[in-house]
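idk why but the lab printer keeps eating my pages so im just putting this in chat instead. protein + heme C:
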Amino acid sequence: MTKKWIMLASAFLFTTAFLTGSARFVAEDEPITISEVMKEAMKGGLNKKVAEGSASADEKDRLLVLYKGLAANEPPQGDLESWKAKTAALVLAAEGAVKGEAEAPGLLKGAANCKACHDAHRP
Ligand code: HEC
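predcted complex ->
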């Protein structure tokens, strides 16, 4: 009888350890750097592809992940409020693209203003 309880208890502990372990793994997922987003979404052309409507569903999802990552960064230069506003506009536009909203392409083109953001935030 005692042995059975010990087995049950260890099975429970193992499951708990496993679940918290995997939750931690998700939370500690590598943060996305500004540089990565620039190379993949901006210079790499993913933003343009989504704005032109020729991107696949996976590519739209990826753009949203990249912009959320971008927004989680702090700008290397310039005002934090301005950075938040610019990156939030990108996240909103990418969300619109994922949902297939008609105004999303226009929003994406407007929000991905290279010069405006570089003048304010690129060292
Ligand atoms: C929301 C702000 C923002 C927008 C919009 C933006 N950039 Fe950037 N970009 C930055 C910042 C900030 C850096 C500097 C990153 C650093 O030095 O840490 C940068 C750096 C870069 C780099 C250098 C990346 C590297 O590390 O090699 C390239 C290339 C680039 N941007 C291209 C573009 C292009 C092309 C567009 C427009 C289609 C664009 N960016 C739009 C903020 C932005």
